[in-house]
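Discussion board: Methods & Data

I've been asked by a reviewer to show the raw model output for two of the constructs in my manuscript, not just the figures. I'm not sure how much to include, so I'm pasting the format here to get opinions. Each protein appears as its amino acid sequence followed by a line of discrete structure tokens. Is this the kind of thing reviewers expect to see in a supplement, or should I convert it first? Here is construct A:
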Amino acid sequence: MATDLPTEPDDADMKRAIKRSGAARPSEATAFRRLRGLAVAGLAVGLAACASPEARDAAMVEAIETGGERYAAEMEARRARHLETTVARFERIHRGEAGDDTYDALLFSGGAEWGAFGAGFTAQWAELGDAAPTPMPEFDFVGGISTGALMAAFVASGEPERYAALEDFYRNVSPTWIEQRGILEILSPRTTSLVDNAGIRAQVESAVDDSLIADLRRAHVDDRQIMIGTVNLDYGGRRYWNIAEVAATAADPGPRIVDILMAATAIAGVFPPVEIDGALYGDLGYVEGIPAFRSHDTDAFGAIWRERNGDVEPPTARLWLVYNIPIGVEPDPVELSLVPLAMRGYDALVQASFTNPVNTALLLQRLSEQSRTPLVEVRWIAIPRSFEKDPEVPLFSPATTNPLADLGREAALEPAGGWRRDQPN
């Protein structure tokens, strides 16, 4: 459950504090301390560059340097396998062998501890059952990035008790799950992160038990996918892992799934990267705030479907996007000074990484209405922009997560279940 830099609540609090006008601005002291911390981190990086970091395995380094084409071919094979699984699931739905007559994908964004919003929302949604304003379907695809990766893994089975356990997880977070490294440790050339997240790993290891692995295996048998987004730091590209497939095919799936989930939450430089099969992986939140569907995947699906099923219309695909951050930027004149300008630009960058996927999905929806296969419907929900975290509360505190989980539960009771279908502003 990483403190995604694009979603870190403290940054939003600092931005709001800095841009207030007036002579007395006590929050600027907090902003200054944080900027000073960044300066210290920058100094540490500079000093470390003059020293000797721990060497990686020479054979693996050579394999990476010469293995670009091999890795690209592997990723294309994985993409083809994921696509085949998707088509197979659509065909199961068409034959009436699944719980619903639509293909439903539940996608969770990053957001660190703010994932409590999505946890409370989905728990309430599941509890309402058929009485929900928009009843919860059986999900054929569940995906997540960063903290959303943990959420996706938790709800693999789709059982109400899993959603309840997810909410309980976020309501009982603890600041002790992470530990900021001391200045001497940071200055060491062998240090790979500003924060030690061993406490989070312990929680993830506890969650990835035999029961969860069994849930993932059943999902794989049913051609359902539980997709976790990461970035390959060595090759600089996205990599999605179907942990349902991992659970069903790996000799010892538990440790591998833990590594994948920890990689999904590993913000480069903040949390340690995770080595999997010799390559280093980290948080995809820098690139995508939520798993994104792309037009070329839809085109490829349509070609395979028509080849195998002729003119038969495939089931409708419904995308359910849960954003564990507020979406949208309020108009606000920016002061002509370094910190406000930098924070406003950072805020715009963050919003772009989160809104671009939903805008792409909405574009696919419009294209699908013009005979693209299959028909796509998009729904999304986000934390209300009115929510503000107390900047004095430490990260991973129930003082933050409980109000967010409550907000999520309230949203699920709103008309249409809180789901929106318009374009984010």
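Construct B, same format:
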Amino acid sequence: MAARPLVARQPNERLQALIQEAGCSNAGLARRVNMCGAEHGLDLRYDKTSVARWLRGQQPRGRAPAVIAEALGRKLGRTVTIDEIGMANGKNLASGVGLQFSPTVLGAIEQVCELWRSDVGRRDFLSGTSVASSALVEPSRDWLITAADAQVARSAGARVGTSDVEAVRATTEALVELDHRYGSGHVRPVVVHYLNSVVSGLLAGSYREAVGRDLFAAVARLTELAGYMAVDTGQPGLAQRYYIQALRLAQAAGDRGYGGYVLAASMSHLAASLGNPREIAQLAKAAQEGARGHVPPRAEAMFYAAEARGHALLGDARSCQVVAGRAVSRLEAADSGRESGDEPPWIRHFDQAYLSDELAHCHRDLGQAEPARRHAEEALAAHPPGRVRRRAIDLLLLATAHVQQREVEEAVTTGGRALELLGTLRSNRGAEYLDDFQQRLEPYRDEPVVREFGARMEMQAA
């Protein structure tokens, strides 16, 4: 296969270091690359001379760099990227890490592991970028039209079994609980280090088809959680990358339902926080279309609720009412047991409290204070004490409804309760809701209770 030189034909020190780490000879690496290529339908005929040329700075064309990285990764027992072997050649620029919905399982592993590695390394390009609406919607189209992955099993690396998958699931549940109670500022670094140090090794391991699907499903869930935590720590550009990769991992798992969840519960809400209402509805509709027939009524209720949020932000009260009615109906069907079906763990949290929360947002955005107040109260009554961040947000939704009704004293009292809860959290989302509430109090800034509330906020921030 023809080769092209790297810029200035510099020796490839990255590749040299990895070959030494793997304990491979040039001939041994060539054999491994040829065998790995054959698994991907490639007729590669490299030898020790080919490897020597790579070390001098030449780079093979086409898919060969990815195969070389995979062959080395198998020998090392971990995922190796084409950037690590010095063969990115501009195609794996840091700024694009995590933004691609990869067409292959191998590419998906490479993308997500590079994202985790870059996040742990605190690369500035990850947190400093903004979110493009098209970069949220385009992966949903890829997900809708991409055929299922025919195979995910791997035969190289450390053996991965059912107990490993269960460990990832149990770790995820523990981290979710900590996040609810203390906010992502306390928990997200733990999640990212676990993904980079433990989970990346599992993905690079050896697993049967069924175990592999379950592994991808578990990793998709934890990757989505890391994305949500990026939102809660004020990093929407980073959250976008995690959500795209969670969507791709769900595809590898063969889980259309969870893919829809990522679109409706994650990407859609990210679009909402960024003020992109049209994209909210588009993403929720894509979830409904792509997961049709693969999800129980509870998930359908959540998908409809997400769409309703988009219509509300667009000021379309009629469409919001219609879609919100569908959400209520589907949740009633789930709770009554008439159509409960087999509910996966990722949707069981979506109960009446969460739906009421969503509807309170809708009515707030439509300027409908009384139903916003009613639904916020319903959410507060139903959310358990452990959902500290959610209760704080619902208190601020209720306080906002009081402002819309010009009940300033009630608003400030309720806002004070939210302020107390937020004092126990490290949550950027909570802070954003608090800032929004304070702005809505601005017309009443001269009233004593409002001045007192402002002073309390300043003391807490000090």
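Answer (T.O., handling editor elsewhere):
This is acceptable in a supplement if you add a one-line summary per construct. For B, something like: The chain is about 70% helix and 0% strand.
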